[in-house]
Specification:
Blueprint lengths: L1 H5 L1 H11 L5 H18 L7 H14 L20 H16 L2 H13 L3 H7 L4 H19 L6 H6 L2
Helix pairs in contact: 2-3, 2-4, 3-4, 6-8, 7-8
């Protein structure tokens, strides 16, 4: 892979010669590097990398450019992105681990069991108001520790 890295400046020079516009050389070189790197990563043996890379660049430059699609209401993905929620979950889990054990246990119980809070208060031998205030304080501390702004994925996760 270091040999591939060493050939990048030379590849970019050739891409500047072959490209049809000022914006294309970097894209062209990057696309060829990605293809060749993927082949190497899969274990394909390339005897002499330099000529192979330069030929791949020339072949790529001859191909018609890929059509681009402008994103608008009609072309946007129909489902919400999953990544923000997953990142929010990871952040919250790490912050819960930092809470006092009593607060963390209460949050886990509420999240995992989804109990009726009145029943949970009775089970824990606590007045309902005490249970609710402990839960509110634990959530508030998580918001503070995480620096959660209102309306973010993490805020929605904390509000259940």
């Amino acid at each position: 892979m270091t040999q591939l890295t060493e050939l990048m400046p030379e590849l970019l020079r050739l891409a500047r010669i072959l490209a049809t516009s000022r914006q294309d050389p970097e894209d062209l070189a990057q696309e060829v590097l990605l293809k060749v790197w993927t082949r190497l990563d899969r274990g394909v043996a390339i005897d002499d990398l330099r000529p192979y890379l330069m030929t791949a660049l020339r072949n790529q430059a001859r191909r018609a450019p890929r059509a681009t699609v402008t994103l608008d209401e009609a072309t946007l993905p129909a489902t919400e992105a999953e990544a923000p929620r997953r990142l929010a979950c990871a952040e919250v889990l790490a912050a819960v681990a930092e809470l006092p054990e009593r607060d963390a246990a209460l949050l886990w119980r509420v999240v995992m069991d989804e109990p009726v809070l009145a029943d949970l208060a009775q089970e824990m031998d606590l007045p309902l108001g005490t249970l609710l205030s402990r839960l509110a304080r634990a959530r508030a501390r998580l918001r503070r520790d995480l620096g959660v702004r209102s309306g973010t994925a993490t805020d929605q996760l904390l509000n259940g």
